[in-house]
Amino acid sequence: MATTSNPLESELQTLQQQAQEAIATVPNLEELEQLRINYLGKKGQLSQILRGMGKLSAEERPRIGSLANEVKEALQASLDQQKASLQTAQIQAKLAAETLDVTMPGVSRPLGRLHPLNSTIDRVLDIFVGLGYTVATGPHLETDYYNFEALNIPPDHPARDMQDTFFLADGRLLRTHTSPVQIRYMESHEPPIRIVAPGRVYRRDTVDATHSAVFHQVEILAVDKGLTFTDLKGTIKEFLRQMFGEELPVKFRASYFPFTEPSAEVDVQWQGKWLEVMGCGMVDPNVLKAVGYDPEVYTGFAAGLGIERFAMVLHKIDDIRRLYNSDMRFLSQF
Ligand code: DAH
What we know:
The protein has 12 helices and 9 strands. The protein is α+β, with helices and mostly antiparallel strands. 3,4-dihydroxyphenylalanine (DAH) is lined by residues 177, 179, 219, 257, 260, 279-281, 302-304.
């Protein structure tokens, strides 16, 4: 018996055909989802067709019903399949876009380097650490007591003239030398002591080729039983030998510092003349007394080196100001 064709049947077939074409050519997942809603959603085209089923006869209803089911399953299968292939394509595209070309030349970042002042400080510290010294530091903002008085420089002492500096209203000052670190360290430690103390210092100095108002020193202090000037001289000579090698001529010259007795200055040859690079001497008994050490039991020696001068001798630099200009043409030579 020939089945009479029903208008719903052909509507379903047309729907299936159109939907499958649309699904097969949809370019992305968002539009695919739109198609699903369009065809299979609650208010979609399939639902609309099925709304007409109420008018069907009892014999036709199951046939059209099962046809509708087939159409629905077929469309769902097409949607699933297209979804999977669009997802794969999306991943492939992402992978292709993010491919790393490991043969491409890198972006080079030039390496930084140490400033010649820092590398000179490091070199001085290394040598003294090698001789058994410990690195110590102190504040840049000092009291009159640590910067002057405890170092045997009372208020009206003429040595203060050479070390005029920047004072705060409360009487504190920017330290004029690293010698106050000696006092601070001795106050909190018992002998034997061997320290090397690097740092920045400040003076009301007129700037020229060998002077700057802000510069760097390294302080040396040794306190023990039985230390003599021979120990001082031997230590300084060994330090200078390691710093400059055997050939550089070195001269000890008698001098005066309030905190050492006797005192000396050390000169090295620089550009055909003698350049003073450090002061030194045996720690004055008054300094030992100020920190509560018995000068009958302990003796010590101390020295203060100007780092800029050392850097200038080491690297044959003609003017101290080059060290502060941040000129890369100069700095990149070190
Ligand atoms: N503090 C002195 C200055 O800045 C340098 C100095 C000289 C330090 C002799 C010392 C020393 O420890 O013994 O001029």
